[in-house]
């Protein structure tokens, strides 16, 4: 009973954003392989390792705060955390609200569908098809802009997109190619599904790569992150983390 | 079936969170309901309009919308408030947002229940108690309150049953109650049908147990009441609960 | 895809309001077409669910009040389960649960169950059907004895007694309670947004996500639900005034 009381107290008072850590970092925890939550509730993934490496480099203590994608920018603005490391692309629209560091990786977007679906990635070929995207992402904007005749289905997390793709509720999904390859296609759930069409990296929609989001007034923190990104790239730490997850260069050119 | 057995401790833990959430919410609802009833019975122009605004919001806005508003928007409001007093930013947890939302909603329904129950007590009784020399407080404590409980119990039982079901929505903002945990288990085992069916059984069990408890309580609180009045009571629509009987 | 409201419009802002900034009411105005679609979807789902639910409830309530023990047992089981558990879980069970089975995915129902819209409609219909059954059962059981005796004295058949006397009279008695059911169904329909449907709350979330704001979309949604609720309440009062006129003479 006592144990339960403690558990309940923990549930009620996960309150304080004012944790003892120097920097609280919002992460998503539902976007494998960049950010995922294990069965036991631990956070793992490329974003998580990069976050920890950067904190170590800066000599600061960090606390990871798991936050839904929908609420992640408001969470930063509301001081629930001080930075966002959640595979967030640097776009003009987002820059109206927050500031970004330089990119820490950049990978193209792609379609996936059932391997035998026989779809072509032209606006005509996809017309009338049901495509799932995570709402409020660059992929959401991209699909609306470039594939206007597609029936879009919007999801809160990328994991839910995979669930409905498997259930056959959507014909295809559009998202980051690496996220879909490692987070879905390579897993047993992704059996029978494959990429189709070309790589998409349109600056107008996809921005300038993935950066760390910070509040506009926190320029010092932004510069510290930038210096730390350069430092871990120079020291080989970045490559070490990259090789743990991928067999290619995710930083881009 | 084995999967379900393997996950039963998890579901049990979730059920405890659900029950805790329901109990915290109902405590808040009782407080708000008491205040609301008092405002409607004894309040002046201002408190009565405040109570009307309160009921109007609850009648007009769905629970999930209100909860998301409190969870995401309440944060900003709270932070501004705290900061204007020079404090640090605070965080609204899903549990807190859920408790506040559900307590707020059902407080409005309980206000009606309490008001109806209060009005059902004959005025003469308090007057008689006072003329027997009882103080204002002891008249309230020994004469009004026990009867208030008796009159309010059927309606209160109704509100409780609906409230317990309402807690399910808090899983949408990430609380690991019985619904949230079942959702997780369903996704990792790929057996959603089994787990959501189990959740339905858990809710039916909570409903059945608390239903029996309220029957017993109602019996206890109407022990001294004459039989014919009791019979009349049973047939009557429970105060305030009638409107809620259909809520989900 | 919804039957009447069609596909949700794209999230491009209305150019007329585009210069008005990115916060507060401007967001709602810029995306008025999204919110209009959301309101349409909400009303459509609510209305269809209520109508179909009534189609379940009338025979179910008759059977519950006057049927055989077997039918009574079956129907009270249905009513008990759907009134005793949260609508959210019922919707999850249908949306996520049913699609788990190969047999369902291969069946003729899959073209419907594939679509979140029909899953939501099924869940809502079964749910409101259960509540309405209970409301109607109460009304039927409370039919004044004299009305049935009168029908018998007039030599009406059992069928005619049911359809001409019992049910219309029960409907009248159920009217006040049914107004609550309509409001609760309207409010309950927010569950649709949880399973990807762009109803009022769904578009509210989309707008929030698009502009990275915390509550503008929710406030607009809350106001819309409030307006719809009170419009329904007022419309219902007119209906009640018409059909219950004989009861409010004294007031």
Brief descriptors of the model:
heterotrimer, A: 253 residues, alpha/beta, D-Maltodextrin-Binding Protein, domain 2, 2 domains, C: mainly alpha, 0% strand
Structure description:
The complex is a heterotrimer of chains A (253), B (248) and C (251). Chain A is built from 11 helices and 13 strands. Chain A has helices spanning 2-12, 46-58, 72-77, 92-95, 123-126, 138-146, 158-167, 177-185, 203-206, 219-235, 237-245, and strands at residues 23-27, 30-31, 35-37, 43-44, 62-66, 83-89, 99-105, 109-114, 130-134, 151-155, 172-176, 193-200, 210-214. Chain A has a 5-stranded mixed β-sheet with strand order 5-1-6-13-7. Chain A is globular, with a radius of gyration of 19 Å. Chain B has 248 residues and is mostly helical. Chain B has one domain: MetI-like fold (Orthogonal Bundle), CATH 1.10.3720. The radius of gyration of chain B is 21 Å and the shape is flat. Chain C has a single domain, classed as MetI-like fold, CATH 1.10.3720. Chain C has helices at 25-30, 32-66, 69-84, 87-98, 102-106, 110-113, 116-141, 145-153, 158-188, 191-194, 200-211, 216-243. The longest helix of chain C is centred in the first third of the chain and has 35 residues, at 32-66. Chains in contact: A-B, A-C, B-C.
In a few lines, what is going on in this structure?
With 253 residues, chain A is an alpha/beta fold. Chain A has helices spanning 2-12, 46-58, 72-77, 92-95, 123-126, 138-146, 158-167, 177-185, 203-206, 219-235, 237-245, and strands at 23-27, 30-31, 35-37, 43-44, 62-66, 83-89, 99-105, 109-114, 130-134, 151-155, 172-176, 193-200, 210-214. In chain A, the strands form 3 sheets. A 5-stranded mixed beta sheet of chain A has the order 5-1-6-13-7. In chain A, strands 10-9-11-8-12 form a 5-stranded mixed beta sheet, sandwiched between helices.
């Amino acid at each position: 009973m006592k144990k339960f009381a403690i558990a309940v107290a923990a549930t009620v008072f996960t309150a304080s954003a004012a944790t003892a850590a120097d920097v609280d970092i919002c992460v998503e925890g539902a976007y494998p392989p960049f950010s995922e939550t294990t069965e036991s509730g631990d956070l793992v993934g490329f974003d998580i390792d990069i976050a920890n490496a950067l904190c170590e480099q800066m000599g600061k203590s960090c606390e990871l705060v798991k936050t839904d994608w929908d609420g992640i920018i408001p969470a930063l603005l509301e001081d629930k955390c001080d930075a966002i490391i959640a595979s967030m692309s640097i776009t003009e629209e987002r820059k109206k609200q927050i500031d970004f560091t330089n990119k820490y990786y950049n990978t193209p977007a792609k379609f996936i569908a059932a391997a035998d679906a026989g779809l072509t990635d032209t606006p005509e070929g996809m017309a009338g098809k049901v495509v799932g995207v995570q709402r409020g992402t660059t992929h959401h904007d991209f699909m609306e802009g470039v594939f206007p005749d597609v029936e879009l289905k919007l999801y809160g997390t990328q994991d839910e997109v995979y669930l409905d793709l498997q259930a056959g509720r959507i014909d295809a999904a559009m998202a980051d190619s690496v996220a879909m390859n490692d987070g879905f296609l390579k897993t047993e759930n992704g059996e029978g599904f494959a990429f189709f069409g070309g790589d998409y990296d349109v600056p107008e929609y996809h921005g300038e790569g993935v950066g760390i989001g910070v509040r506009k007034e926190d320029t010092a923190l932004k510069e510290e992150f930038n210096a730390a990104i350069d430092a871990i790239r120079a020291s080989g730490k970045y490559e070490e983390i990259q090789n743990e997850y991928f067999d290619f260069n995710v930083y881009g050119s | 079936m084995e999967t379900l057995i393997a996950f039963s401790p998890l579901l049990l833990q979730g059920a405890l969170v659900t029950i805790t959430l329901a109990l915290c919410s109902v405590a808040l609802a009782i407080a708000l309901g008491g205040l609301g009833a008092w405002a409607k019975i004894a309040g002046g122009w201002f408190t009565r309009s405040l109570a009307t605004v309160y009921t109007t919001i609850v009648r007009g806005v769905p629970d999930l919308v209100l909860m998301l508003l409190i969870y995401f928007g309440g944060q900003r409001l709270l932070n501004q408030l705290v900061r204007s007093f020079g404090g640090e930013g605070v965080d609204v947890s899903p549990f807190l947002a859920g408790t506040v939302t559900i307590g707020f909603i059902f407080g409005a329904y309980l206000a009606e229940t309490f008001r109806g129950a209060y009005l059902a007590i004959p005025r003469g009784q308090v007057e008689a108690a006072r003329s027997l020399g009882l103080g204002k407080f002891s008249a309230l404590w020994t004469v009004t309150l026990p009867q208030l409980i008796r009159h309010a119990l059927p309606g209160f039982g109704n509100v409780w049953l609906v409230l317990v079901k309402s807690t399910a929505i808090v899983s949408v903002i990430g609380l690991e109650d019985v619904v949230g945990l079942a959702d997780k288990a369903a996704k990792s085992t790929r057996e959603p049908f089994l787990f959501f069916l189990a959740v339905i059984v858990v809710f039916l069990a909570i409903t059945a147990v608390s239903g029996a408890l309220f029957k017993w309580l109602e019996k206890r609180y109407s022990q001294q009441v004459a039989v014919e009045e009791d019979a009349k009571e049973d047939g009557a629509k429970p105060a305030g609960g009638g409107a809620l009987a259909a809520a989900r | 895809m919804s039957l009447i409201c069609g596909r949700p419009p794209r999230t491009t802002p209305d150019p007329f309001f585009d210069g008005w900034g990115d916060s507060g009411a401007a967001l709602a105005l810029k995306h008025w077409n999204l919110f209009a679609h959301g309101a349409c979807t909400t009303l459509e789902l609510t209305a269809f669910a209520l109508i179909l639910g009534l189609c379940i409830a009338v025979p179910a309530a008759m059977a519950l009040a006057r049927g055989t023990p077997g039918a009574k047992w079956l129907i009270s089981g249905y009513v008990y389960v759907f009134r005793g558990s949260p609508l959210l879980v019922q919707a999850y069970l249908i949306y996520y649960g049913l699609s788990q089975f190969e047999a369902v995915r291969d069946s003729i129902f899959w073209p419907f169950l594939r679509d979140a819209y029909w899953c939501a409609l099924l869940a809502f219909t079964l749910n409101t059907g259960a509540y309405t059954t209970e409301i109607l059962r109460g009304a039927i059981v409370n039919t004044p004895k004299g009305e049935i005796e009168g029908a018998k004295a007039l030599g009406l058949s059992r069928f005619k007694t049911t359809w001409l006397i019992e049910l219309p009279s029960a409907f009248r008695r159920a009217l006040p309670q049914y107004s609550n059911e309509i409001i609760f169904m309207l409010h309950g329909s927010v569950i649709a947004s949880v399973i990807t449907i762009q109803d009022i709350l769904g578009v509210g979330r989309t707008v929030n996500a698009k502009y990275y704001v915390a509550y503008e979309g929710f406030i607009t949604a809350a106001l819309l639900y409030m307006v719809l609720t009170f419009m329904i309440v007022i419309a219902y009062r007119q209906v009640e005034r018409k059909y219950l006129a004989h009861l409010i003479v004294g007031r």
